[in-house]
Amino acid sequence: MMKQNKIKLILAAAALMLSVGAQAQSAQTFVNRYKQFVNQAWLDKDPSDRLIAYNDSVFDAMTIQYHSTYKPLMTSDQIEDYTEYRTRYLRQRASRKATRTGNKVADSASEAGEQVQSSGSKVGAKVNGFFRGLFSGKK
Predict the structure, then answer these.
(1) pLDDT per residue over 58-100, tens digit each?
(2) Inter-residue contact 71 to 79 (CB < 8 Å)
(3) 136: left (phi > 0), else alpha (psi -120 to 50), else beta?
(4) Is the pLDDT of residue 44 over 70?
(5) Residue 30's pLDDT is what?
(6) How far, in Å, CA of 117 to CA of 125, rounded?
(7) d(CA 77, CA 88)
(8) pTM over 0.85
(9) Coil, strand or helix: which one is 137?
(10) φ/ψ (deg, to 5) at 48
(11) Which of 45, 139, 30 shows the shortest CA–CA distance to 89?
(12) CA distance 65 to 95
């Protein structure tokens, strides 16, 4: 009887470890898909209005997935990466909209992102990712 309880306990612990590992991998898979989407979304230098609308709908759907499913499962590094790519997407979208209306958005380099001290918290990770996405040289 005691031996069966130990086996059950070991199996339960193994199942829990596998579950946690699967959730972490699931969150990383989402971050990887998100990065791929943002990198692909703006490859076309002069996208049609239809493509822009499609990209925005995918962006909105992924944002909902992030908040409803993945955010609680993510590490600080994953949140920082997500926020960096989210900011890149939004910066590029704003830049395209400004260009379409005849306004040019000047690129500016800033050390604001580097000045933000990451306290190791998810909030610090989110702020760092925001500034990396905002001021990185990639468009």
Answers:
(1) 999 999 999 999 999 999 999 999 999 999 999 988 888 887 7
(2) yes
(3) beta
(4) yes
(5) 96
(6) 9
(7) 17
(8) no
(9) coil
(10) -75, 165
(11) 139
(12) 25
